Amino acid sequence: MIKKGDNVIMLTGTDKGKKGKVLKAMPSENKVVVEGVNQKNKRQKPRKQGEKGQLIKITHPVNVSNVGLFCGSCGKGVRAKVKMIKDKKTRVCAKCGKEL
């Protein structure tokens, strides 16, 4: 399960291999917004007289299946397991066992 604030890596798409932080999670739609990934250009018209139009980069949501949790010790995208550590559920890497 991917939550807001997690470090993730892109597994597929044009941004494959890019790492970023999850800015927003939308579990009902199975999508996440990742910092610096899947950016699109939007043209903005000038609103006031004398102002110039500009291009704005907007990050769009990505399907959860296209990202993986990034484990710093493994150095790649991994699945997470839930372990009880001191009466608290924590997510750990499925490969090396380190805390995520």
Automatic annotation (TrEMBL):
GO terms for biological process, alphabetical: translation
GO molecular function: rRNA binding; structural constituent of ribosome
InterPro entries: KOW, Rib_uL2_dom2, Ribosomal_uL24, Ribosomal_uL24_C, Ribosomal_uL24_KOW, Translation_prot_SH3-like_sf
Record domain KOW: where: 1-28
Region of interest: Disordered: 35-56
Keywords: Ribonucleoprotein, Ribosomal protein, RNA-binding, rRNA-binding
GO cellular component, one term: ribosome
Signal peptide start and end residues: none
Entry similarity comment: Belongs to the universal ribosomal protein uL24 family.
Subunit structure: Part of the 50S ribosomal subunit.
Function: One of two assembly initiator proteins, it binds directly to the 5'-end of the 23S rRNA, where it nucleates assembly of the 50S subunit. One of the proteins that surrounds the polypeptide exit tunnel on the outside of the subunit.
Protein name as it appears in the record: Large ribosomal subunit protein uL24
Organism listed in the record: Candidatus Vogelbacteria bacterium RIFOXYB1_FULL_42_16
Gene: rplX
